């Protein structure tokens, strides 16, 4: 499933990046281009990060205003 339509990034790519150590939306942004254009994918990407880590990362200022 595509998470980021602007950059053609799938959920599999995001999960793979998380599996390889990506722990923040900035990591996904720089590594895959997630949330670098319209930003509509940021919410889903953050949710995936949160599900993996079990943290409250989505409440960081960067996450809120990304
Ligand atoms: S859907 Fe990801 S930047 Fe637009």
Quick take:
Strand 1 and strand 2 (9-10) form a beta hairpin. This protein has one domain (2-65): BFD-like [2Fe-2S]-binding domain (Arc Repressor Mutant, subunit A).
Search tags:
single chain; 66 residues; two-stranded antiparallel ribbon; mainly alpha; binds FE2/S2 (inorganic) cluster; 2 strands; Arc Repressor Mutant, subunit A; globular
Question: What does this protein structure show overall?
Answer:
With 66 residues, this protein is mostly helical. It has a single domain, classed as Orthogonal Bundle (Arc Repressor Mutant, subunit A). The chain is built from four helices and two strands, in the order ββαααα. It is globular. The mean pLDDT is 87. FE2/S2 (inorganic) cluster binds next to loops.
Work out the oligomeric state of the chains in this entry.
single chain
Identify low-pLDDT runs.
Answer: none
Number of helices: 4
The N- and C-terminal alpha carbons lie at a distance of 22 Å
Strand content: 5-15%
* Widest β-sheet, arrangement of strands: 1-2
- The CATH topology: Arc Repressor Mutant, subunit A
Describe the global form. Answer: globular
**Secondary structural class:** mainly alpha
**Given this structure, which CATH class is correct?**
Mainly Alpha
């Amino acid at each position: 499933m595509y998470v980021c339509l602007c950059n053609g990034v799938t959920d599999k790519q995001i999960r793979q990046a998380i599996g390889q150590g990506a722990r923040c939306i900035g990591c996904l942004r720089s590594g895959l281009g997630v949330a670098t254009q319209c930003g509509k994918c940021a919410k889903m990407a953050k949710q995936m990060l949160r599900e993996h880590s079990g943290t409250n990362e989505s409440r960081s200022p960067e996450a809120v205003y990304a």
